[in-house]
Amino acid sequence: MATSKKVITRDEWEKKLNAVKLRKEDMNTLVMNFLVTEGFFLFPYGETAEIDLATITDRMAVKKAVQNGNVEDAIEKVNDLNPEILDTNPELFFHLQQQRLIELIRQGKTEEALEFAQEELAPRGEENQAFLQELEKTVALLVFEDASNCPVKDLLDISHRLKTASEVNAAILTSQSHEKDSSLNPKLPSLLKMLIWAQNQLDEKAVYPHINDLSTGQLQNPSE
User: Which branch of life, at top level (predicted)?
Assistant: First the structure.
């Protein structure tokens, strides 16, 4: 027999959230971790973390290259840092190659884009269904003369560059952290994934205000 879900009002939910006590030290550590892993803060923090300025500079150079659409340059820089990063992470390498394809399409280099997709991405799609689906979505950009009418036009947004850049940044950081200090692993993405997982689990039992937009963190009623 089906059971009705518990309904939690916004006022009740906010009271529950406000009742959770967060230590200032934990929040400071989380903020500092974000600043360091994203390259905004260049000084050591904590008692054990040792941050090499050169590694941050190199990592930010890779990230900036992707953000500017210079993906080939970014790949070269990653391989100079540590060839194993891309050798052991096929998903990351595919996403970088996918971004290269997007940049060719953005520049209107249709023939070069098709050739690149066929030679570099299609073989990987044959081995991985998820890669194939992403490749098909990307190639769909070539079907529309006006990309603004394409269902996957978001691939051409700068936000997609930023997403790929963040993925590369995290991979480099993880590689460096394994060699040095695990405290330098990016913590915020893991916390956000945990939040999404927790909300999905709670959805099965209750109706309550969600955080749908992680960029704002604002609560939204189920009906919104």
Answer: Eukaryota
SS3 170: helix
Type and span of the H or E element at 71? helix 71-81
The answer to pTM > 0.90 is no
DSSP 118: I
| 5: DSSP letter | P
* Tokens matching residue 148: 């603004």
What lies within 8 Å, CB to CB, of 198 at 6+ separation is none
Q: What is the pLDDT of residues 13-58, one digit of tens each?
A: 888 888 888 887 777 777 776 776 666 654 544 443 445 566 778 8
User: Contact at 8 Å (CB) between 207 and 7?
Assistant: yes
- The DSSP secondary-structure symbol of 146 reads S
The end-to-end CA distance of the chain, in Å, is 29
